[in-house]
Design brief:
The protein is α/β, with parallel strands linked by helices. Helix content is 30%, strand content 16%. The chain has a five-stranded parallel beta sheet, sandwiched between helices. Strands 1-2 form a two-stranded antiparallel sheet. The chain has a two-stranded antiparallel ribbon with strand order 3-4. GO terms for molecular function: adenylylsulfate kinase activity; ATP binding.
């Protein structure tokens, strides 16, 4: 009895218009398994999974302009940074000013610093919310949040605290370069570390905001219960108790609590936004 084959879809339509139709080889067909799905292919496809090695006698005719870009003429541009050797900075045609034009804002870093309990995270959220309502793109790098991921390998020793701030500064720099208004919220107790982060950005694009709240007020708030633990000796190296906080020498904004008068987070956010508007950060 003759078997009737189902009709094959036309080869000249849709995504397959350039694919030549033909029967799959029966004897040499294999089964290639991918994560989450199955696909039928040729056994020869396994050859693509072998490690890539340089040929002993390469065909120089295959070298194109992109490969030539890494020829000897670029050796003088190679650099060594830290433990990274022979690296080359790759420029992209889309630059920071293009991204700022798209977002209609200037990418910068707003660095909130102050004692634990001074209200940094609360201000960061209020500031982000207010800027968002104005159609501005922001991102918050919160000190505790960063330690849940990127900086989870760091302790609270003086050395690790410096490394913690260095990493936050480098990430904040990338956000600013992307045209985003990056708001960092971290105690960042040491002046030299904050200055090092400032030096990462062009002049005027690092806005240091000191939330100047007295230690006794912060300790009375003690939102995380850490001051109580530090006083009991259960937390070592706690800023303001047995580790120093170095107030900024010349920051752009000081938000100072005077006596019993306490400004709301939205009021303090408006002070920062007024600075941004006055200095042209909220337009391209």
């Amino acid at each position: 009895m003759r078997t009737i084959q189902p009709p094959r879809p036309p080869c000249c339509s849709g995504l397959f218009k350039n694919v030549k139709c033909g029967p799959l080889p029966a004897a040499k067909s294999g089964f290639v398994k991918f994560r989450g799905t199955n696909a039928v292919g040729l056994n020869s496809a396994r050859l693509l999974l072998k490690p890539i090695k340089a040929k002993e006698d390469p065909d120089t005719s295959l070298i194109d302009e992109s490969a030539a870009a890494f020829s000897g003429k670029n050796l003088s541009r190679m650099s060594n940074t830290g433990n990274s050797m022979n690296i080359l900075w790759h420029e992209c045609p889309i630059q920071k000013h293009d991204r700022q034009e798209l977002l209609q804002q200037k990418g910068c870093v707003i660095w909130l610093t102050g004692l634990s309990g001074s209200g940094k995270s609360t201000l960061a959220c209020a500031l982000s919310r207010s800027l968002h309502s104005r159609g501005k793109l922001t991102y918050i790098l919160d000190g505790d949040n960063i330690r849940h991921g990127l900086n989870r390998d760091l302790s609270f020793s003086a050395e690790d605290r410096s490394e913690n701030i260095r990493r936050i500064g480098e990430v904040a720099k990338l956000f600013a370069d992307a045209g985003v208004i990056c708001i960092t919220s971290s105690i960042s107790p040491y002046q030299k570390d904050r200055d090092a982060c400032r030096a990462l950005l062009p002049e005027g694009y690092f806005i240091e905001v000191f939330i100047d709240v007295p230690l006794d007020v912060c300790e009375a708030r003690d939102p995380k219960g850490l001051y109580k633990l530090a006083r009991a000796g259960k937390v070592k190296g706690f800023t303001g108790i047995d580790d120093p906080y170095e107030p900024p020498c010349s920051c752009e904004i000081v938000l100072q609590q005077k006596g019993s008068h306490i400004m709301s987070p939205s009021d303090t956010a408006e002070i920062v936004i007024s600075y941004l508007e006055k200095n042209g950060y909220l337009r391209a």
